[in-house]
Structure formats: structure tokens, C-alpha cells
Amino acid sequence: MAAPTSPQPPLDFSHHFSRVTKGRQANSLKKFYRFFAIPGIGNLAGGLPNATFFPYDTLEAQTARPDRWQPSPNEPSNITRKLDSTSLETPDTSAASHITVPHLAAVTDPLQKIDLTTFLQYGLVEGYPPLFSFVRQFARETLHPNVPYLNGPEVILSCGNTDGYSKVIQAFTNEWTPGRDWVRERESILCEEFAYLSGIQASQPKGLQVVPVKIDTQGMLPSGPGGLEDILANWDERTGKRPHLMYTVTIGQNPTGSLLPLQRRKELYAICSKYDVLIIEDDPYFCLQYPSVPNLEAAARGVPLPRDPEVHTLPKKSGFPFIDSLVPSYLQIDTDGRVIRLDTFSKTIAPGCRLGWITAQPAIIERILRITEASTAQPSGFVQAMVAELLIGDQPAKVEFMRKNRAEQKAFRGWKVDGWVRWIEGLRGSYERRMTRIDWAVISKTEMYNFDWPRGGMFVWVRMCFDSHPLASQVPGPEISSTFWVYLTQEPNLLLVAPGQTFCPTPEIAAEEGWKFFRLCFAAVEEKDVELCSERFAHAVATFWTIKSKKELEDINDGFYDG
Amino acid sequence: MAAPTSPQPPLDFSHHFSRVTKGRQANSLKKFYRFFAIPGIGNLAGGLPNATFFPYDTLEAQTARPDRWQPSPNEPSNITRKLDSTSLETPDTSAASHITVPHLAAVTDPLQKIDLTTFLQYGLVEGYPPLFSFVRQFARETLHPNVPYLNGPEVILSCGNTDGYSKVIQAFTNEWTPGRDWVRERESILCEEFAYLSGIQASQPKGLQVVPVKIDTQGMLPSGPGGLEDILANWDERTGKRPHLMYTVTIGQNPTGSLLPLQRRKELYAICSKYDVLIIEDDPYFCLQYPSVPNLEAAARGVPLPRDPEVHTLPKKSGFPFIDSLVPSYLQIDTDGRVIRLDTFSKTIAPGCRLGWITAQPAIIERILRITEASTAQPSGFVQAMVAELLIGDQPAKVEFMRKNRAEQKAFRGWKVDGWVRWIEGLRGSYERRMTRIDWAVISKTEMYNFDWPRGGMFVWVRMCFDSHPLASQVPGPEISSTFWVYLTQEPNLLLVAPGQTFCPTPEIAAEEGWKFFRLCFAAVEEKDVELCSERFAHAVATFWTIKSKKELEDINDGFYDG
Q1: Closest-approach residue (CA) in chain B for A208
Q2: Where is region (Disordered) located (chains A, B) (predicted)?
Q3: Which of B23, B40, B116 sits opposite A205 (nearest CB)?
Q4: Tell me, which fold does domain B437-562 have in CATH?
Q5: H helices within A154-216, ranges in order?
Q6: Residue A512 vs residues A217, A478, A498: alpha-carbon distances, Å
Q7: CB-based contacts of B138, cutoff 8 Å, min separation 6
Q8: pLDDT tens per residue across span B128-137
Q9: How many Å lie between the alpha carbon of B385 and the closest alpha carbon of chain A?
């Protein structure tokens, strides 16, 4: 065993920055901010409106208590039956707190000052101090206590992960135009063979080449044909620069629902380190990991329970058994400082937040801060105020707070880190139970389709066996597939699912493999409808497989195009 | 007089789009949205969390009534005394409404549905329907009823004007790197000789050359040396492409406080049309126009009152005398469709909103929508919900609303367009009175500094006459200027002002002219401090001009660098 070494500073990755990003400079007006703190100073410098003129005197909300949802077990090694499968969950909205962001808070500590005078004024690019410091501490001490490089990572708030990804791409890629720029200058980005493509598609007009890496049920393959090492070792420079970026969703992978274990992470990371690839880890579902699934799936399929569950041992603990039980981020093995992680409140609070954060080594965060100054400036103060008040809570010095009786004061407290962890733990429980309500176990034994139960996230990735369809010899597979998609939307099936082609990084994958898959999301529909929809799906497949004439297929599409 | 012609479609400006912007395509997942509306459809397609799991049961606020602030006259032709100069304004916060955004609203009309199930879920890129339609109608019918091209402009919400500017620059400029790209490909942007540079500086790393246009007390000069025509007609293509973009703040120009009259607009627009320049009109202060100023200033200076005030006659009226009295946007004379206007709620609601909108011809808005999909996705649902509830208000069908008594129901109504116009009219009144509290009339007659009273916005642009300083022959002007800036921050002066160099688009202007100016903002300090600060400034100048030894100047800077 190697002797423990003292932490080293992260590597210098400035050679990865784009030309534009290298040239960015700090906003010249920002240098005056330090003078704002001179006592009694008359600030005629900033172009700020007066807070008196904000038309909001308070912002308020009824909010859930952190224990609204029931957690599921962290280590359900002996669970072989569905969790709570007989009762639907209804929230106890009577157990709620009322939170208030006042116009002016009496506290002077900027880390505690949550008021409209601050949060509705121009703010710091990295975030208003109370929320920024909460998120920073949560990222550094709770989510990622093991980041190996010296002094750990820095964070900056983002407007959600689409925005975060867009800024990271700005930071690390140059525009490239076919016919104008040298092919050898074309940049590339690695991603999973089936991937969440909204961000990637958005960066394709910049000339970025997308390079898929083969996956299995755990995620990217480190070795073997089409695996990461294979692609990087055998890269043909005549087609463009070897990829220096990887985009990956490792937990509840979208669309396949897989979970990348620690051991596999280490193998992939070592290859990225060898070939100098930066890792963009987009992790919206980090808390939605379903440890009950391996056993439940085995039980449903009537196969032996899996032995030796994956172990995720890391030296430092977060202090929260739930967090410690989760597969860790790439950050926790990031000796080089090459991981840029994207977090969002979209799945843990609400997508409408448009609020998240980016975690990476400080020199990278500094460049992203410059990009933020030049674009979004900061996430809206409205969402920052409401989330800060929810997570951090009213401070005892507030006049309104002191007027309340003791019981009310207790109810008014913010969630704090404990409450936040309890909330996401409850969310995991709810989504895990919801997922296990899918009633397809028996049907997955048929020849018509198959799937792995998702190990995390919100999606089931269904592989259709269209070659077993009665018309398979007469109608091309992709045509049967698109007709089946239309068939699903029609009476009595009434189901909307996402076609596999949507998740194919290249036209080749779409043509060869994409049409065989559909992604089904079990998160958005009402819980009572999860079973209903899965039954509808099973029924639709069964009836679709009874279709024996091409005319019937054509009629389905006719109805579609008329509508 | 020419016969009125029927409206023509806007011109095609696709040749202005950047290479990346031309290549953008619609998000491939968005095409499924139309299926979401099928009755009874089980939506397993979108990767949406369930609204049940949002931890907010309501969002609420105490909000001002629209008549909180007193308007000032629209046509104060006979005003020669300061407005309300003896009493400070204090808001009547008891006259407030309580607004509530419920978790689920009973209304089905998407234009009226303001609830958390909608606004905290993923939304449409252009904005959630109720707020988007309010803003669109306000822009098309109230603010700009005269846009001359066929069918008028389109709008899209932005995350404020920094974000809006960043997107417009993405739409219309290509990256350019010195030493790598041909000089002839370098793009340029026109702006005022003294300008708000945050956005422009942010786009300089993209290689964009900044080209200043000479200004006078009204704004850009159409003709004469350094005027717009002079620059464009005599452009030297060897230094890069002739500018195809203009960035301009025409109302309450930042930093000079000028107001570009309609006649001047027409002259500048004709030149832009002749040389195919797109106009980016950044207009955060559109409602802060101060018609009392010409008379007040003349009275204070003891000169004859100005005759023949500028007239802004346009054929269609908004229905609001206040709006009709304002200098109109470039949009209202935009026959070609070459104006891209940036609006923000930063100065009319609060900067922390990070919410605004872009108005331009539909084909331009469509490209900006594609850029938005790939970056911010949408402004936060929290601010959209709170602003929608403020402006549009609770709908009668809501259960909570029906439970209230009649008086409460009245108090709960949203502002509607009438209320919104009344609010910004009151804001204008408050800022106009606040500005006239500046007590410099008599001092402006001295030789030490001079300025024009601002015709709009939040700033006074003060020109210092450092050549009248006792040490002018021994110490370079820029050095006296920077020492004076430090002197202002020290006891007993305690003033922070923005140095003129901060607003200089080129190093040459900064070196030759910038150091002679300071920008003073009267908006941010408390109203009672406006007079105090102006007195402090006058006193600081007077005492600074008594300094007769270089040693004293050096001592001032010493203290600064120690601090």
C-alpha cells in the first residue's frame, strides 16, 4: 500500500481554455466594490436603483418541512419485495412552514443577511453571500469531502445545468467552421453512446465533433472496442484534434438509468488523465440512486440475488449516512483537478428555479466567473432569496421573528444542511418507490422488449425486439418503430414516450441502434398513473404485435398525419 | 407629403448572422411538446420531475399598489421651481396588497394560469405564457404602437440586459483572433464616445473592435467630424470590416444623461439604413425622462427659458398620456426591421429580477430563441411567477380568491397594464424629484467644474476643469484627477464616484478626455442624502482647489494605498 501523500495543488489546465476565454478580463466597474464598505460613504458610483422603489415589501412562501417524504433504506441488502407498493403517497401540506424574506433584515453579517434590499439589488456574480456560502460548504464538506487536490474545489452559482454546460463549453472550446478552418483544429467532445443531447446539440453549431463511447449497464467502457482507451489511443488526427473534453451523466444516466460505480470511475479517470481529457460531470440525479433495485430485479426475474454489492469506500465521511451511501462524484477521485461538475436544483427543488452550481478547481471557476459576468451576471435574486430562506432560514435578529412565540419560531427555522439532506433523502425514497410501481416484471420475459431496471434517475430505457414482430420480414425495422411510437399516442394506449433516436450522438447510431429503443420517464406522471401507464404500455405492445398486415400499419400513420 | 404606404415586411438580415448562429437548429426534444396536449395522454416522454415534489406550496409577497409614488407632470412647460423640494418621500407600505401564487390554479386558460405547477416546471423558452403575453402586448401595443413593418415585432424574455446583449452579440458576431484570422474579417461595433461598457468589454475578447461616435448633449452626432456618417463613409477596410452593429443607450444615456430626440433618431437611422448597420438599443431608463429639466436648468442658471420644446409626434397613440409624452424607441421608426431593443425590469422592478425582454423583427427573435435554448433556457420561474402575479394578478376562479370578501378581492387584483404604466409614471416622478434635489446650481457657475442637468436616467456627468487647479502647471491632469478621486473617498468628503475613464471605449479617449469626467449616480443613496452628497462634493472641490503643494497631493495618495 502506498504511503499517504500530502495534497498537491491541481494541475494547470490553462492550455485547454478557448482563445476568447483566455482573453477575458475582470469587469472594470467591479473594482470599486471594495470601497462600498467604507463607513458613511456616499455611494454615487454604482448605477443602482434605490431599494425603496422595489414594489415588493416581502417575499413569502408556504414551504414543506424537510421530512415531508419518507426515505428508503440506504442498504436494502435483504429487500426482495417492492417498497410500499400498496399505498399512494400524498403530501401532508398542513405540515408546512411559512417563510418570509423581509425588505430589510436587521442582521449585519452578510452571510446571514437574507432580505430584499440585498437579494433584489445587483449581486455578486458567484451568488448572494448567504446562499453562495451554503452551497459552497455543502459541496466541499458534505457532497465531496474527499476532493484530493490541495485546498479543494471552488463553486459558482449557475442558472441551471443547461446554462452551466454552455459556460463550460465557452470556456474550453473554440468555434470551428467547415471549409473555413483547418480540419486539424476541429475540437471534439466524448459522450456516452446513448446520451442526453440537449447541451451537446447546442454546441454542435460551434463545430464541435461528438464522439460516442460504448456503454454497458454500468456506463462508459474503459477498454475494448469502442471503449474510452480504444478511441483515444487510436485517434486519427486528420479528422480533428483528439477529444479533450468528456461530457458524462454517470448517475441515473440519461437515457439508460445506469449508475457508474467507483471502480469503473477510477479506470475511466486514469484514461482521461493519461490523454489529458477534462471531465464535465452533469449530475442532476445524484441523490436518486436506488439500492433496492438489484435485489428487486433479481427477485422479479426469478434469478439468484446478486452477491458482493458494489462498495464505495472513501476515506472521509460526510457525517450523513445517506450521502455516504451514494456513489461518489468524479470529484472525489480528482487528483489532477480535471473534473468540472454541474449541479442543479431542478430535480431536488424545481426546474423552474433555473438555479444550480458548478464545482471545479479554483482557476477554472475563475474563468467561468468571467464568462458569467459577460452573460447571465447572476441567477435571479428572487429564486436565490426563496431558496436561501428555505435552506438557511430566518435569522433570530429579525423583528418579525422575535414577535413570534417559541413554537412558531421553531417552525420558521430554515432547513440547514441537516434538513436539506433529509429532504433529498425523502425525495430518493419517493422516486424509488414510484419506480418500483412499474409493473413490467413478468412482461419483460417476453420476446417483444426487455430492459434493465434503472439504478438511478428518472428513466427506463426499453429495448424493443422489433425483429419478433409479425411484419418484420416485410417492413424495415425503423418504420415499424416509428409506427409503434404513433400507435402509442392513439386510443386506447395514449402514451407519449421519447424515441431512442433522440439520444443518439451520431446519425450512424440513430440509424443502426436508436430506433430499437424508447425512453420512459416515470417521474412526471401522477404516482397512481405509473402502474396504469406501464399496463397501457404492455397492452399496447401485445396488441401491436397482433398486427399482421402492412395496410394496418399504414392506417396508424395516416391517422397521425391527419391529426 | 408622401402618401401613406401600406406596411412592408421587415428586410432579411440573415447575412448579419454569425456562422454559429446560422447553424443553430431547434432543440430536438421540443417537437414533442404539441403531443403534451392530447387529452388523457400519459406523458412518459419529458424528463420532468413531478410537481408534487416541489418544496413550495405557495409563493407569496406583500406588494406595493401601483399608485405608491406620485407622478410628475408630463408637460411641465411652465415649471421653473424644483419639484416638491421640501419634503422627503416615504412609501406608504401599509397600502399594500398580498399576492399569492398557488400550487395549482383552477383556471385552464394557459394565458391566465399562474401557479407553481406551471411556473416551477420547465417552461417555454420565450417565457411562461401569462407573463410572455403580457410583455408582448405591452411592447407591441403600449410602448411601441408605431413599429412600421408588417405585423410588427416579436419579443422573447431575457435574463436582463447583460444577458440580452450577450445573446445579440452571439447572434451577430463571429469570433476573431489577432494573428490567426484575417484583419479584413475583424468585426466592429459602434457606440457613443462615452458609453456603458460592461457589455462591450465583455465582447472584446471575441475580437470585436469598438468604434466610438462623437456625441453632443443630445447623443450621437449624425454628421461632422467623428459623427456617424463620417465614420462609415470613410471606413478603412484594411482595419477590419465596416461596423455592422451599433450599441446605443439613447434615454438617460449612461454616463452623460442625455436624451436622443426623435428628429436626431431619424437622421441616425437613415445613416444606419444606408450603411446596413443593425441598431442594438439598450433602454433600461426609458421611463426616466425628465421634462422639467430644461426649464429648471435655465432658471437655475439665470438664462432664458428654452422655447420650442422637442416634439415627438407619431401617428398612433398608446392610450396613456405618460407613454405618449416619452421620446420613442428607435423601433417606432424602424421601417427596415434593423432595431434590436433590450428592455429590463432592473430599474422598474429590481435588478435582482434578472428579467427583461428583447424586441425585434420575428426572424431575429427566432435566432435568439435558438441561442436561449442553448444557454439560459428561460428566466427563473420564481421571478416570472412573482412578476406575473404582480402584473396580471390572481384570477377569479381560484379557490383562495373566492373565499375572500369583496374588499379583499379588490386588493388582490393584479396591476394590469394600467397599473404598470401608473407604477412607472410614479417612478419617473420620484426619480425626477430626487434628481432636482441636487443642489449644485450655483456652484456650476464656478470654473472648477460644469455639467448639464440630466434629461433622463440616473446619472450626472460632471466635467472637471482641472486646468484651473493651482497645481495644473506642475502636475499632469490625469494625476490631479486620480488624486481628486481618492480625496473624495476620504474624510470628511466620503464620496464614491465613477471615474470618467470607466466609460471610455478606447484607450485614446481615456487618455485624452476620460480623466476630466466623473459620473455621479443620484439613484442609489437615500433621498435625504442626495443634497448632502451634492454639498459634500461641492465642498470637496472647493477645498481640493486650495491645495497648493505637490506634497499635499502625494499625502492623499499615500493614505489611499496604505488603506
Answers
A1: B20
A2: 64-91
A3: B23
A4: Aspartate Aminotransferase, domain 1 (3.90.1150)
A5: 161-172, 198-203
A6: 19, 9, 17
A7: B417, B420
A8: 999 999 999 9
A9: 10
Interchain contact, A502 vs B44, CB within 8 Å: no
- The ranges of chain A annotated as CATH 3.40.640.10 are 103-402
DSSP B374: T
Domain with CATH 3.40.640.10 in chain B: 114-299+321-402
Backbone angles phi, psi at B367, to 5 degrees: -70, -35
How many residues in chain A? 563
Q: Residue B560 corresponds to which amino acid? A: F
Angle at B479 between CA A40 and CA B257, to 5 degrees: 60
Q: How far apart, in whole angstroms, are the C-alpha atoms of residue B521 and residue B518?
A: 10
| Chain B environment of A458 (Cβ under 8 Å) | 47, 49
Q: Rounded CA gap, B100 and B58, in Å?
A: 7
Distance from CA of B342 to the nearest CA of A (A): 14
| pLDDT over 70, % of chain B | 88
- Closest chain B residue by Cα to residue A528: B42
Q: Indicate where chain B has its CATH 3.90.1150.10 domain(s).
A: 437-562
CA distances from A34 to A23, A422, B123 (A): 24, 38, 38
Tell me the β-bridge partners of B518: B462, B499
Q: Which residue has the higher pLDDT, A206 or A40?
A: A206
CB < 8 Å to A352, chain B? 116, 119-123, 380-382, 384-385
Longest dimension (CA), chain A: 85
Say if domain A103-402 classifies as CATH 3.40.640.10: yes
Joined grid coordinates for residue B505: 471605449
Question: Which helix or strand (DSSP H or E) is residue B343 part of?
Answer: strand B339-344
CB atoms within 10 A of CB A7: 13
What amino acid is encoded at B11 in this protein? Answer: L
- What local confidence, expressed as pLDDT, does residue A367 receive? 97
Checking if the pLDDT of B394 tops 80, the result is no
The lowest-confidence range among A26-30, A108-112, A407-411, B33-37 is: A407-411
Where residue A77 falls among pLDDT bands split at 50, 70, 90?
low
The confidence band for B525, taking pLDDT boundaries of 50, 70 and 90, is confident
Alpha carbon of A420: minimum distance to chain B alpha carbons (Å): 11
Query: What is the interface pTM, i.e. ipTM, of the complex?
Result: 0.93
> Does domain B114-299+321-402 match CATH 3.40.640.10?
yes
For residue B118, what is the nearest residue in chain A, using CA coordinates?
Answer: A352
CA A345, A349, A353: angle at the middle one, nearest 5?
Answer: 60
What residue in A sits closest to B46 (Cα-Cα)? A521
DSSP string of A18-57?
Answer: -HHHHT----GGGGGGGGGGSTT-EE-SS-PPPGGG-SEE
Residue numbers in B near A93 (CB within 8 A): 57, 103
Task: Give the per-residue pLDDT at B414.
Answer: 80
When pLDDT is averaged across residues A539-560 and rounded to a whole number, the result is 90
Of B46, B175, B496, the CB nearest to A521: B46
Are the beta carbons of A24 and B430 separated by less than 8 Å?
no
- Dihedral sign (CA A196, A199, A200, A204): positive
Residue-wise pLDDT for A173-190, tens only, equals 999 999 999 999 999 999
Mutating which of A17, A53, A157 best tests the B interface, going by the most B Cβ atoms within 10 A? A53
| Contact (CB, 8 A) for B59 and A61 | yes
Ordered DSSP codes for B245-267: EEEE--BS-TTT--B--HHHHHH
Q: Calculate the CA dihedral of residues A195, A199, A203, A208 and round it to 10 degrees.
A: -20
B159 closest CA partner among B16, B332, B371: B371
The reported pLDDT for the residue numbered A1 is 47
Using CA atoms, how far apart are residues B521 and A123, in angstroms rounded to an integer?
Answer: 18
